[in-house]
Specification:
Layout: H1 10-17, H2 73-94, H3 99-103, H4 105-114, E1 122-124, H5 131-139, H6 174-187, E2 196-201, H7 208-220, E3 224-230, H8 251-262, H9 268-274, H10 281-286, H11 288-292, H12 303-306, E4 310-316, H13 320-331, E5 339-344, H14 352-356, H15 384-398, E6 402-406, H16 410-413, H17 415-421, E7 426-428, H18 433-445, E8 449-455, H19 456-459, H20 463-471, E9 478-482, H21 499-504, E10 510-512, H22 517-528, E11 535-538, H23 547-554, E12 574-577, E13 585-592, H24 596-609, E14 613-619, E15 622-624, H25 628-637, E16 640-645, H26 652-662, E17 672-676, H27 688-695, H28 699-709
Parallel strand pairs: 1-2, 2-3, 3-5, 4-5, 6-7, 6-8, 8-9, 9-11, 10-11, 13-14, 13-16, 16-17
Antiparallel strand pairs: 10-15, 12-14
Length: about 725
């Protein structure tokens, strides 16, 4: 590789790059080694059945990115082919984010080949596309543990590898982080020239924080490179019918699409000419005539140039013949002006089932490689997400003022289903949660009934808007918080752990959590009818309980689900199981959300093992307004009161304890009260069952808590977790 020199004549560079017989780096002409036969494996089978190479001779030699440095260009291509199929085979066994990883295989190889990682930090935005990066950075043997308990994270994780320069999971953070790292390098006075690289997709770049960072980057004039990975997949899935049509959300995507449509892909000769502008003035003058013809832009500049970036592109992100020398030119540039390289890639590239799917196999369960068939058992019960979507459709069918808003997650939130029925009332704002909330507030001002469906973890990004633009003004925005509680294999960046705490402290907002799918329908109807304040409804990911369980645990007596939900009294809970009479000790379990089923099972187990104990189980339904009458009754009639929730400290249990303390219920020392919440730590990837066991919120932990408070012996036994399907955001 060429050394880091900023004063190399552009004419010399052009001479090097325009002489194909010389190759790249003197050795990149073909497979000149004994590996040459491997190049024949590159042809994609038309399939099905689909299959990758029978062996991976190049990948087998790579333990760290340094092992790539001596590869020829032809070998880098073959390595990409092997790496793509290694990724496909690995994800087929664990499930995970496949499409995004397949789309950046060549980019990943090129970045690790050209830059001196980890000294040159590469920051992956969102980082669900890092599986090829993990394989090349010493974690290949651990890929079977991907997103499993005790295994590799599905995202970049600083504690996992020095090559994971910055952790992620949420979007639009990479440019800010890369800029901070570049400035820190300068502040530390380090002499070694270094490049910070941020890789950001066209979905993540719809978030406003990206522009805040780019605006600041030019001002600080720090040496960063932004790789803008444009794959046309802004939302999940892109193509959901909405008020903006079926095109990717936002004007920026349309803008970059026009750039690509109006300009051919630039090759390394174009880039070598145009990058002259980044070199010292004397070399610029020597090459001024070359630069006259450099870029051929359609207009006088681009959005990115107006933000102070030197824009290069568009470039085919799968074409290593051009991508590698372009990145080398960028690496060897002079000066500190930030550079944005715009590449066009195909999500799901190289695996036909992914290429053909509407979501490009963004997130998949385990699947059969030969056919692409997803290995999931048919759902026996509806998902909570689908119950929400069906309920919203029912409400919208009767009221034209009902609209749905999502922040680039129509599929995950169920808004895609609503969009197919009511496209003109469906608003996908892109990855822009702050805008989504204030947009909803504006709709509410005019009498529209907005249902703003955002994952619990993503609503954290719009906290000021939630308070300032909605709650203070008492605007009836209905917040739908999917993925509340622990979410499974995506791990701590996606858990909805904090919403009860961060929403519960806001005055004037109503906050509820259904215990089951029937209650979810009822709560949808309830918040629809609330027009004088904001409301928030939170529920977990995954499948609901089903009629058999509902009838068994809660005695619903249903032969089928109710056709419509019915409004519930605001701030009123219910007792679902009364304690038996004539006992010496009485326990009350007050649950908020879907831990109610585990609470009933714990109550049965306690009464079955201890004839002198009676257990009442109540469903709080509402955290705000709190049913203080129910809490007071439980406190007065029981020796032990346990609250259970799928949230962090500071949530429902704390509100109950606050009321009990202020009301004097704890003064006499006759009531033992205990909150059961998520522990004060980040719970790593695993199945949801494993995570709730680790959190101590399963049936056996609820049972043990009650028995300890009664002074009875506790036998925890062991958990019996059935195999669970992997969970995907």
């Amino acid at each position: 590789q060429a050394p880091y020199h900023s004063s190399i004549s552009m004419s010399l560079l052009l001479g090097l790059y325009s002489a194909p017989s010389l190759g790249l780096g003197g050795a990149r002409t073909a497979c000149a080694t004994s590996r040459a036969h491997a190049c024949m494996q590159q042809q994609q089978q038309p399939g099905p059945p689909y299959a990758g190479p029978r062996s991976t001779p190049l990948l087998d030699t790579v333990s760290t990115p340094n092992d790539l440095k001596g590869f020829s260009l032809a070998e880098l291509k073959q390595l990409s082919h092997e790496l793509r199929w290694e990724t496909i085979n690995a994800v087929s066994k664990t499930g995970g984010h496949l499409g995004s990883s397949l789309g950046v295989v060549e980019l990943t190889v090129a970045l690790h080949y050209v830059f001196n990682t980890p000294a040159d930090p590469v920051i992956w935005d969102v980082s669900h596309q890092v599986y090829p990066h993990k394989i090349l950075t010493g974690r290949r043997e651990r890929m079977p543990t991907l997103r499993q308990a005790g295994g590799l994270s599905g995202f970049a994780k600083r504690s996992e590898s020095e090559y994971d320069a910055f952790g992620a999971g949420h979007s639009t953070t990479s440019i800010s982080a890369a800029l901070g790292m570049a400035v820190a390098h300068e502040l530390r006075g380090l002499d070694q020239e270094r490049t910070s690289v941020a890789v950001i997709g066209d979905g993540a770049i719809t978030g406003g924080m990206a522009y805040e960072a780019m605006n600041n980057a030019a001002y600080l004039n720090s040496r960063i490179v932004v790789i803008y990975n444009d794959n046309g997949q802004v939302s999940l899935p892109t193509g959901t019918p909405s008020a903006g049509g079926t095109v990717p959300a936002g004007s920026l995507s349309a803008y970059t699409s026009r750039l690509i449509a109006s300009k051919p892909f630039q090759d390394f000769r174009d880039i070598a000419k145009s990058i002259n502008r980044l070199f010292p003035s004397e070399i610029q003058q020597a090459n001024a005539k070359i630069d006259e013809y450099a870029r051929g832009m359609v207009s006088g500049g681009t959005l990115f140039e107006e933000l102070g970036f030197y824009y290069i592109g568009p470039v085919d992100g799968h074409d290593l013949d051009n991508l590698v020398p372009i990145l080398e030119n960028i690496r060897d540039r002079g000066g500190k002006q930030p550079v944005l390289l715009h590449i066009k890639t195909d999500k799901g590239k190289g695996y036909p089932p992914a290429e053909a799917a509407s979501d490009k196999y963004h997130g998949v369960p385990k699947f059969e490689v030969a056919t692409g068939k997803k290995l999931t058992a048919p759902a026996k019960t509806p998902s909570y997400t689908s119950v929400f979507a069906d309920s919203l459709i029912d409400l919208a069918a009767a009221d034209r003022s009902v609209v749905a808003i999502t922040a680039a997650m129509p599929g995950g939130t169920g808004v895609d289903k609503f969009g197919k029925r009511f496209p003109k009332r469906t608003f996908d704002v892109g990855i822009a949660e702050q805008h989504a909330v204030t947009f909803a507030a504006g709709l509410a001002v005019e009498g529209i009934k907005p249902f703003c469906a955002i994952y619990s973890t993503f609503l954290q990004r719009a906290y000021d808007q939630l308070i300032h633009d909605v709650a203070i003004q008492k605007l009836p925005v209905r917040f739908i918080l999917d993925r509340a509680g622990l979410v499974g294999n995506d791990g701590p960046t996606h858990h909805g752990s904090f919403d009860l705490a961060y929403i519960g402290c806001i005055p004037g907002i109503a906050l509820c959590a259904p215990s089951d799918e029937v209650e979810l329908r009822n709560m949808m109807r309830t918040i629809y009818e609330v027009d004088d304040k904001p409301t928030a409804l939170r529920y977990p990911r995954g499948s609901a309980l089903g009629l058999d369980v509902l009838n068994d645990l809660f005695e619903y007596g249903l032969d089928e689900y109710p056709a419509r939900g019915k409004a519930l009294p605001l701030g009123k809970g219910r007792v679902v199981r009364g304690a038996r009479e004539d006992v010496s000790s009485r326990v009350a379990i007050l649950s908020l959300g879907t831990r109610l089923a585990e609470s009933v099972l714990a109550a049965r187990a306690i009464e079955g093992a201890h004839a002198d104990v009676g257990v009442t189980v109540a469903d709080a339904r509402w955290m705000k307004p709190l049913d203080t009458a129910l809490v007071a009754r439980l406190a007065e009639e029981h020796d032990v009161l346990i609250t259970v929730e799928e949230g962090s400290i500071g949530g429902f249990g704390d509100h109950v304890l606050h009321y009990l303390s202020l009301g004097g219920f704890l003064d006499e020392g006759t009531l033992k009260a205990r909150p059961m919440v998520l522990p004060d730590k980040y719970i790593e990837a695993g199945s949801m069952g494993e995570q709730y066991e680790e959190a101590g919120l399963s049936q056996r932990f609820i049972e043990a808590t009650a028995l300890r408070l009664l002074g009875k012996p506790v036998s925890m036994g062991s958990s019996s977790l059935a195999d669970e399907e992997p969970t995907i955001a």
